[in-house]
Amino acid sequence: MLTLPSLLADERVKLIAACAPRASSRAAFEKEFGGRTYDRVEDICADPDVEAVYIATPHQMHVDHVSIAARAGKHVLVEKPLAISLEDGIKMVEACEQAGVQLIVGPSHSFDGAVSLAHDIIQSGKVGRVRMIQALNYTDFLYRPRRPEELVTAEGGGVIFSQAVHQLDIVRLLGGGMVKTITAATGNWDPERSTEGAYSALVCFEGGAFASLTYSGYAHFDSDVWQDWVGELGYPKDPANYGQARIALSKVSSPQEEAALKSGRTYGETPVRPPAPHHEHFGPIVVSCEGGDLRITADGVWLHGDFEQKFIPAPMHAGPRSEVVSALISAVHLNAPPSQTGRWGLATLEACHAILQSAETAGTVKLVHQIPSKETNTGGNS
Questions:
Q1: Cβ distance 309 to 303 under 8 Å?
Q2: Is the Cα dihedral 201, 282, 114, 173 positive or negative?
Q3: Coil, strand, or helix at residue 120?
Q4: Does domain 4-105 have CATH number 3.40.50.720?
Q5: Averaged in consecutive runs of 10 residues, what is the pLDDT profile of the chain (382 residues)?
Q6: Pairing status of strand 52-55 against strand 75-78
Q7: Residue 47: which residues within 8 A CB-CB, separation 6 or more?
Q8: Do residues 166 and 349 touch, judged by C-beta distance below 8 A?
Q9: Cβ atoms of 25 and 268 closer than 8 Å
Q10: CATH T-level fold of 109-319+342-366
Q11: Smallest Cα–Cα separation from 213: which of 242, 272, 170, 266?
Q12: CA 188 to CA 20: how far, in whole Å?
């Protein structure tokens, strides 16, 4: 639902088939696009007219669905996180590499237009090497409608696999990708929703750069106030709607009712929104470089130099997620994948596990599956 506006706005993409367990979703697709629908992943991947498959299923299903697509010779765009376990992530990456198909992990906020602009500025060399990154985000994530497994860490629930993956993807892209160590603490403060709802992490890169990450999904302070009241998905936000997530959840009487409430937000059950007027974002981010600081907003980048500051707007193309659509097209037709490949997703997944491991052991975790981002200017081995 969140990616569909950008798919519809891009003339290079044609939606010809869909697979969903809900009959209402399949019927809605057939009515809107006149295409074919399936209730089994194997069948859509066997469709000879399908060139690439977008897998937007729950985290725990990614490994099976990506493997099926790879065996069928289909290129894959899979939602973050790549998988829940590193073992499954490795299996998915190897399956796609052996089949000779592209695997891209996204949409992730590392594809956001303003993040891409900041990355371009960094790799241009005009602000020197990255030295420090600060990223923080305060949202109502934990109190949005959830299926039961989304509140169980071992099954990919909580903020680490769904939210830290975004923040890690962003800082890895801007910091060069090669994370050396992570030291972290997590918060699990609501016994009614007993999974990680907050974290802070210190991420150290090869080459000397470091990043501090903070996230809270406990629905109190809303850091979008620092983004000019533009929400994460690029739509204007009314501050008068404060507390709506908790209010809606207070009216739910059972896990089954909560899961049904979430299902009601899927394709075929709710109207598709028009493209957002702003880029998506993941909270305030400041990148400190040798020659200036970059502050990322929903519309572009503020460059604070030695003697002057200026705003550089990020071009808006075919909607906030057009970058990931373009990345998929380039990977499939030009064999030019973005940084966010399967192995990139595996490296970010490793960083998610490192946050959990560090919080549990109160120690620093070394990472071994990291890969560099493309064309960065961070110095050292990054």
A1: yes
A2: positive
A3: helix
A4: yes
A5: 86 94 92 94 97 95 98 97 98 98 95 96 97 98 95 96 98 98 98 97 98 98 97 95 94 92 78 87 98 97 97 85 92 93 98 98 98 63 29
A6: parallel
A7: 16, 17, 36, 38
A8: no
A9: yes
A10: Dihydrodipicolinate Reductase; domain 2 (3.30.360)
A11: 170
A12: 33
pTM attached to this predicted model: 0.95
Q: Do 118 and 301 form a contact (C-beta atoms < 8 A)?
A: yes
Query: For residue 356, what are its two tokens?
Result: 């959990």
Task: Return the DSSP state at 164.
Answer: I
Alpha helices in 59-164 (DSSP H): 62-71, 86-99, 113-124, 159
Q: Spell out the domain ranges in the chain.
A: 4-105, 109-319+342-366
Residue 185 corresponds to which amino acid?
Answer: A
Tokens representing 245 are 């997530």
Q: How far is CA 258 from the centre of its chain?
A: 23
- The position carrying tokens 């996230």 is 215
Would you state the pLDDT for residue 382? 28
Q: Say if CB 167 and CB 188 are below 8 A apart.
A: no
